[in-house]
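Hi Y.,

Following your request, here is the sequence exactly as I used it, all 93 residues.
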Amino acid sequence: MMAIYGPLALILNVVFFIMLIHIIMSWLISFQVLNLHQQFVAQMWYGLNRLLEPIYTPIRRVLPNTHPLDLAPLVAFIIVISLRDYILPTLLF
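Below is the corresponding structure, written out as C-alpha coordinates. Let me know if you'd prefer a different format.
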Protein backbone atom coordinates (compact mmCIF):
# COMPACT_ATOMS: atom_id res chain seq x y z
CA MET A 1 0.00 0.00 0.00
CA MET A 2 2.94 2.32 0.65
CA ALA A 3 3.97 1.92 -3.01
CA ILE A 4 0.70 3.59 -4.03
CA TYR A 5 0.58 6.15 -1.21
CA GLY A 6 3.99 7.73 -1.85
CA PRO A 7 3.62 8.64 -5.54
CA LEU A 8 -0.02 9.66 -5.08
CA ALA A 9 0.89 11.94 -2.17
CA LEU A 10 3.71 13.44 -4.23
CA ILE A 11 1.41 14.11 -7.20
CA LEU A 12 -1.22 15.73 -4.97
CA ASN A 13 1.42 17.92 -3.28
CA VAL A 14 2.77 19.09 -6.65
CA VAL A 15 -0.75 19.85 -7.92
CA PHE A 16 -1.49 21.69 -4.66
CA PHE A 17 1.52 24.00 -5.02
CA ILE A 18 0.95 24.60 -8.74
CA MET A 19 -2.66 25.56 -8.04
CA LEU A 20 -1.56 27.79 -5.15
CA ILE A 21 0.90 29.61 -7.42
CA HIS A 22 -1.82 29.98 -10.09
CA ILE A 23 -4.37 31.38 -7.64
CA ILE A 24 -1.92 33.89 -6.13
CA MET A 25 -0.70 34.90 -9.57
CA SER A 26 -4.28 35.50 -10.75
CA TRP A 27 -4.85 37.84 -7.80
CA LEU A 28 -1.64 39.71 -8.53
CA ILE A 29 -2.62 40.09 -12.19
CA SER A 30 -6.13 41.24 -11.25
CA PHE A 31 -4.79 43.91 -8.89
CA GLN A 32 -2.22 44.94 -11.53
CA VAL A 33 0.79 44.06 -9.42
CA LEU A 34 1.97 41.77 -12.22
CA ASN A 35 1.77 42.82 -15.85
CA LEU A 36 1.10 40.31 -18.63
CA HIS A 37 3.12 42.50 -21.02
CA GLN A 38 6.28 41.25 -19.31
CA GLN A 39 7.50 38.20 -21.18
CA PHE A 40 8.38 36.04 -18.17
CA VAL A 41 5.08 36.72 -16.40
CA ALA A 42 3.07 36.03 -19.57
CA GLN A 43 4.91 32.76 -20.26
CA MET A 44 4.43 31.59 -16.70
CA TRP A 45 0.74 32.57 -16.70
CA TYR A 46 -0.06 30.85 -20.00
CA GLY A 47 1.93 27.77 -18.98
CA LEU A 48 0.03 27.47 -15.70
CA ASN A 49 -3.27 27.96 -17.54
CA ARG A 50 -2.41 25.16 -19.98
CA LEU A 51 -1.45 22.86 -17.10
CA LEU A 52 -4.55 23.49 -15.03
CA GLU A 53 -7.22 23.88 -17.72
CA PRO A 54 -7.86 20.09 -17.95
CA ILE A 55 -8.63 20.14 -14.22
CA TYR A 56 -10.84 23.24 -14.32
CA THR A 57 -12.88 22.45 -17.45
CA PRO A 58 -14.96 19.54 -16.05
CA ILE A 59 -15.64 21.55 -12.89
CA ARG A 60 -16.80 24.55 -14.94
CA ARG A 61 -19.30 22.32 -16.75
CA VAL A 62 -20.91 21.35 -13.44
CA LEU A 63 -20.86 24.74 -11.70
CA PRO A 64 -23.35 27.49 -12.58
CA ASN A 65 -22.04 30.38 -14.65
CA THR A 66 -20.88 33.18 -12.34
CA HIS A 67 -19.23 35.14 -15.14
CA PRO A 68 -17.03 37.68 -13.38
CA LEU A 69 -16.06 35.19 -10.67
CA ASP A 70 -14.55 31.84 -11.65
CA LEU A 71 -15.20 29.31 -8.88
CA ALA A 72 -13.54 26.35 -10.60
CA PRO A 73 -10.07 26.98 -9.10
CA LEU A 74 -11.56 27.21 -5.60
CA VAL A 75 -13.51 23.96 -6.00
CA ALA A 76 -10.49 22.18 -7.49
CA PHE A 77 -8.29 23.49 -4.67
CA ILE A 78 -10.72 22.20 -2.04
CA ILE A 79 -10.88 18.81 -3.78
CA VAL A 80 -7.08 18.52 -3.87
CA ILE A 81 -6.79 19.51 -0.21
CA SER A 82 -9.45 17.02 0.85
CA LEU A 83 -7.85 14.23 -1.19
CA ARG A 84 -4.38 15.01 0.13
CA ASP A 85 -5.20 15.58 3.80
CA TYR A 86 -8.27 13.47 4.55
CA ILE A 87 -8.95 10.73 2.01
CA LEU A 88 -5.42 9.60 1.14
CA PRO A 89 -4.30 8.99 4.77
CA THR A 90 -7.39 6.85 5.43
CA LEU A 91 -6.47 4.59 2.51
CA LEU A 92 -3.26 3.69 4.32
CA PHE A 93 -5.13 1.85 7.08
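The helical segments are 2-30, 39-62, 72-91.

Thanks again,
Q.
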